[in-house]
Amino acid sequence: MVEMGWTEKRIARLAFLVGVGRRARDIAIDMDVSENSVFHQAARLTLHFRTVPNALIILLSPVACETFTKAAESRRMTPEKLLTIIAEICAAEPHLIQNILDEP
Fold first, then answer.
1. Predicted TM-score of the model (pTM)
2. pLDDT digit string (tens) for 47-83?
3. Which of 2, 22, 90, 94 is the right S-S partner for 17, CB 3.0 to 4.6 Å?
4. How far apart are CA 12 and CA 30, in angstroms?
5. How far apart are CA 56 and CA 59, in angstroms?
6. Buried-state track 28-45, b at ≥16 Cβ within 10 A, e below 16
7. 29 Cβ contact list (under 8 Å, min separation 6)
């Protein structure tokens, strides 16, 4: 673990991750800092850890993120909205998931 300073970008990421309901332990791993550092900085910024019901957080590879971002932009929507639509379609048609995952 490499302790890095809390730059504006890292503080924004911390606030985002806390806001979407990530656990301090997961944030610490993601940001390569100690869990204690996450708690201390969150307290300093008056951020509160909470559970977000019915939320799913996924981490995409840079290539996947770029692909979904481009697809969303061409449809004038956010990547989150695009992924929500795709996930809801797959949830409504479970055979799509099997077809995708079972494809060689």
1. 0.49
2. 988 766 666 667 788 899 899 999 999 999 888 889 9
3. 22
4. 14
5. 10
6. beebebeeebbeebbeee
7. none
Distance CA 59, CA 77 (A): 19
> How far apart are the C-alpha atoms of 97 and 88, rounded to whole Å?
11
Rounded CA-CA distance 99/27 in Å is 33
User: Tokens 């379609």 label which residue?
Assistant: 89
Which tokens in the block code for residue 69? 């971002």
Q: pLDDT (tens digit, 9 = 90+) per residue, 14-26?
A: 998 888 888 898 8
- Residue 88 burial by Cβ neighbours in a 10 Å radius (0-12, 13-18, 19+): exposed
Look at 21-30, 38-47, 81-90 and tell me which has the smallest mean pLDDT: 21-30
